[in-house]
Design a protein that fits this description.
This protein is an alpha/beta fold. It has five helices and six strands, in the order H-E-H-E-H-E-E-E-H-E-H.
């Protein structure tokens, strides 16, 4: 293949329309814009949805719904994933470093009940009742700071 032989696929491109080149071209005089009016003139622009002064559709219809700006999604981590981490104390920063959560600042919750649990200490992470019972049954500890416990 050579650079001078490369061509676009047939039908994918068409030659530029050259307007104002006389009657015989089909695009002479008014250049396909018709006669008079805002759209026939240079700079004749109106915004999308403009209906000639009539109340536009996007303003005639009622507004519906809203977005909660303070909302944050709780990130979930499986209990079996925690067992694979070779650390005794597990906090949000450890989970972030291991790539189990996208952010250490958003709330994290440990879910699941797993029989193969070892004694680990979980700090400042939300946890389900079943997962908490499984950890405490194997000698682990779950502790929260006041902010995490009341924050969610």
């Amino acid at each position: 293949m050579k650079l001078n032989t490369i061509r676009p696929a047939s039908g994918s491109s068409s030659p530029k329309k050259r307007v104002g080149r006389g009657i015989g071209s089909g695009w002479g005089k008014t250049c396909g814009r018709g006669h008079k009016g805002q759209k026939s003139r240079a700079g004749g622009f109106h915004k999308i949805g403009f209906e000639g002064g009539q109340m536009p559709l996007q303003r005639r219809l009622p507004k519906r719904g809203f977005t909660v700006y303070g909302k944050c999604k709780i990130q979930e981590v499986k209990l079996s994933d925690l067992v694979a981490i070779n650390k005794d104390v597990i906090d949000p920063n450890v989970l972030f470093e291991k790539g189990l959560v996208k952010s250490a600042h958003d709330p994290i919750k440990i879910i699941g009940i797993d029989a193969a649990v070892r004694a680990i200490r979980i700090k400042d992470i939300l946890i389900t009742r079943g997962a908490r019972a499984a950890i405490e049954q194997h000698g682990g500890v779950v502790e929260f700071t006041q902010e995490v416990a009341n924050g969610i």
